[in-house]
Amino acid sequence: MSPQVHHGYQHGRQHRREHDGGSLRSALLDEFRANKSRKWELRDMFGYIVEFSGDQHGSRFIQQKLEIATSDDQQVVFDEIVPGSALQLIQDVFGNYVIQKLFEHGTQAQRSRLAAVMETHVLALSTQMYGCRVVQKAVEYILPDEQAMLVKELEPHVLRCVKDANGNHVVQKLIERVSPERLSFVEAFRGSVKELSTHPYGCRVLQRCFEHLTEAQTRPLLDELHKYITNLMQDQFGNYVVQFVLEYGQPQDRKLVIAKLRNQMLHMARHKFASNVCEKALVMADSESRHMLIEEIMTPKNDGAMPLIAMMKDQFANYVLQRAILVAEGEQKQELINKVRPQLISMRRYSNAYSKHLISIERLLEKMSPIRTADTPTQLPNL
Questions:
Q1: Which positions ≥6 away from 164 have C-beta within 8 Å?
Q2: Considering the chain, what is the average pLDDT of its residues?
Q3: How far is residue 105 CA from its own chain's centroid?
Q4: What is the per-residue pLDDT across 311-322, written as a single tens digit (0 to 9) for each?
């Protein structure tokens, strides 16, 4: 928090008197908290709006009243807060909700005045726990030129914001709500795609970019992403970015990702994070690509090892196999089932540890093929 913003916060508390073991509360607020039988109105708090906004019960009351207040009463509340105490309340655990209501229910002129108060403080507010919520709300209600002011202030610090627990939400909201041509800060992501993809907050921001920005803005980011696809599939955060490209990306991007899985299905399917990408690829691939990925699962290796058997026994790969059974088409589906079923029976007979995922595969086959053969188990084993 910048010193300027912090100073405003302290100044707003000075009018309260010490009460009740050190807390600062007016007599009116004490009565409000104690007297539940009195029918309180918004105008009863005039002159004390800032104090009530910073109190848990007072804040909730003002929020409710602002939703139905007359324009005159709303203006009184606004004038008590803006500009002198706005920065204080924006960062307050309870006060931030009152400011959010002013953005939601205020006039456009009031919203513009609130936005003006935030000017030069946008970075500090965006990286503050409560301030970031108000900045996000502001983005939804202020005018495009005012949105551009927020973007311009954050632009020199956008990578810092993306990696901040609070600031990343503000950047995501800007990408979602601001016209793409105004989002010049996206240029700063170029050269950092791998770093952002493997970051817990950066991976979310990249997904919003791919979701909302223009092809001209996202193409350099996607081209950069493709250089690291194999590594990203195996990353705890990067795998989500790759999955997003598979689900929402252009067909050519989807094909490039799937191409990286070719001849790697068993290896990737057994990986904790990459197995999620394998499942998504099986769902999102075109019929021809899906057929090739499933064929790879069914084809013995040069040494005679069966990928399918290894996948059945693996804690992650078994989910990929189940997905393959679900999405396979036509004759290939039946061929896959016919290859899996005898292996299940064999593992039942010769393995002491009939694991949970084998049971899952068995149940799936029962749903897919209700006609049983003489060799097909009719009931699940006692574990």
A1: 126, 127, 201
A2: 87
A3: 27
A4: 988 889 999 998
Both tokens assigned to 134: 């108000």
Q: Which residues contact 18 (CB under 8 A, 6 or more apart)?
A: 24
Full residue range of the structural domain in which residue 329 is found: 262-383
Q: Say yes or no to pLDDT of 10 above 50.
A: no
Whether 283 is in a domain gets the answer: yes
Cα–Cα distance measured from residue 242 to residue 276, given in angstroms and rounded to the nearest whole number? 10
Cα diameter, the chain: 86
For Cα atoms 119, 162, 272, give the angle at the middle one, nearest 5 degrees: 160
Give the pLDDT band of residue 152 (cuts 50, 70, 90). very high
* Count of other CB atoms within 10 angstroms of residue 172: 21
Give helix then strand counts, H and E, for the chain: 26, 2
230 within domain boundaries: no
Residue 229 lies in a domain: no
Contacts of 315 (CB under 8 A, 6+ apart): 357
Quote the number of domains for the chain.
1
Q: Is residue 81 part of a domain?
A: no
This prediction has a pTM of 0.82
Res 63 pLDDT > 80: yes
